[in-house]
User: What shape does this take?
Amino acid sequence: MDGDLTSFLAGHDQIITAREARSVGIRTEKVRAAVRAGELVRVVRGGYVTRSAMLAVSYEARHVLRTAVLLRTRPGDVAASHTSAAAMWGLPVTTRLMERIHVCHRTRTGTTRRHREFTVHCCPGEDAVLEARVERSDNAFGMVLPDRASDPGQPGAGSADGADADTGSSRVPAPVVVVVHPAVAAVQSALLTPTSTAVGIMDAVRQRGLATVPQLQDWLDRMRFVPGIPHAREALARSDGLAESPPESRLRLILLELGYTVVAQHPIAEDGRVFARVDFYLPELGVVVEFDGRVKYVRSDGSGDGDAVVAEKRREDRIRRLGYGVVRVGSEDLGRPDVIDRYIKDAARTVRRPLRAS
Assistant: This one.
C-alpha cells in the first residue's frame, strides 16, 4: 500500500474517505488500487476501511466499524441510530440485523431514505444526539462513552484534547462518533425486532445503567406517532432490567407464558448468609431455574475452566441440600417451552418441604 495512504490510515482508525483523501493530496487512484489489492474494503460510497481492521474484530464490532466509516463520509449530517447505535452501546443485536447500517438525520429537516448499504431515518429529536468516544480492545470496537465536552457528568469520559484529566499525561484520543442516546437506540431497535429480542434490548439498557425507565418512557411518548411504538412500549413493560443476557430475558418470557410466578435474581441463603443469587425462582413450586450459559465455564482464551465447573456443581448441590428443586435450561431448550415445562414439573417433585428460609 502507498506510504502516504498507510500513514493516514494509521492515524485515523484505519478508515479513509474520498473527501479526506482529496484534502491531504492522496490521489483517488491510490485508494482504488488498495481496494483492488484487497488491502482496503469499500463500506459505502466514498468510505473505506482496511481489511486487516475488519478481520481483527468480532462480527458485531465490524458493524460498529462499518457504521463509523459511514459517519465519516457524512460529517455533521447524520448520527448512528437504531440497531447500529445499539451495537455501539454494546446492546444485544442479532447478526441478521447487522447486515444494514442505520443512521438518522441530526436535524428535523431530513426525511427517511433507504440506500443500498444503509438507511437514513428522520431525526427523533435534536437532543437525542450526542458525541461519544469509542473505546476498543484487541478484539472489539464499540464501547461508547459520552464525551466530557458534551456530557461532563458522565464518569470515565475523556477530555476533549485527549489528555488524562487526573494525571495530565498525554495519550492518543479515542475516535469521536455521533450517536443517539442509548434510550433512543433501545426504543428505535425495538421497532425493528421481534418481541423477545426487543425485551432483551430493554433489559440490557436498563441492567447496564445506560438508561432509566423514565428516560425510555419519555422517548416512547415523544415518538408516539412513529409506526411500531406500541410494540416498543410492550417490550419495555415486559422487561425487568435484571437479566444479564438475552437468553435470560427470553427464558423469563417463556416462564411467564407457561403461567409461572417468576422472581428474578433471587438470593439463596444458608444460616442467614446469602451464598447464591439464582436466575429465577418459582416460589409456588420451590424450584430454581438457571440458564446454563457456556460463558461462565470458559476462560478468556476460550479454553474450558474446570474450576468454574466444580464451583458451579458445589453451588448447585448446596441449593438442592436446602430443599430446592433445580432446573438447568440450555440454549437448545429455548425453542421448546414444553420441554422446559416438563423439566420444571420433574424438579417440583424433588422439592422437600418445608423449605428453609432464603
In short: The chain has three domains: 1-51, 57-240, 246-348.
